[in-house]
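Thread: Newbie trying to understand structure tokens

Hi all, I'm a second-year student working on a class project, and my supervisor (Dr. K.) asked me to get a predicted structure for one chain before our next meeting. I've only ever worked with sequences, so writing a 3D structure as a token string is new to me. If someone could post the tokens and maybe explain what I'm looking at, I'd be very grateful. Here's the chain:
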Amino acid sequence: MVSIATFRKLASSFDEVEEAPHFEKTSFRVKKKIFATLDIKNQRACLKFSLVDQSAFSAFDKTVIYPVPGAWGKHGYTYVELKKVRKETIVDALTTSYCEVAPKKLAAKYRRD
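---
Reply by user tm_fold:
Sure, no problem. This is what the structure looks like when written as tokens:
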């Protein structure tokens, strides 16, 4: 399980991240692009992945990490159930999402290619 405070701390740990409201959720942005949102009420995050990364993360357990239903999911948006996810997994998932959205220079620091 990952607490709201832990998720917020991890998401904010990347270079040039700004936390801002996004409708009824909290967003985490780099260069004004959202890489993660946090739904405190439902204790769920939404991360932006490539379709390949979405498939890889979703393969672990579809009750923990799974595509957002409908068109958003087909564009890589993926839900993560914070009550069920392990900290190591959310660290990897956030890093992947950040690198998907961040400019190449910023992402290079975190890539594990």
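A couple of things are worth pointing out once you decode it. The chain has one domain: 4-106. Residues 87-101 form the longest helix (15 residues). Feel free to ask follow-ups in this thread.
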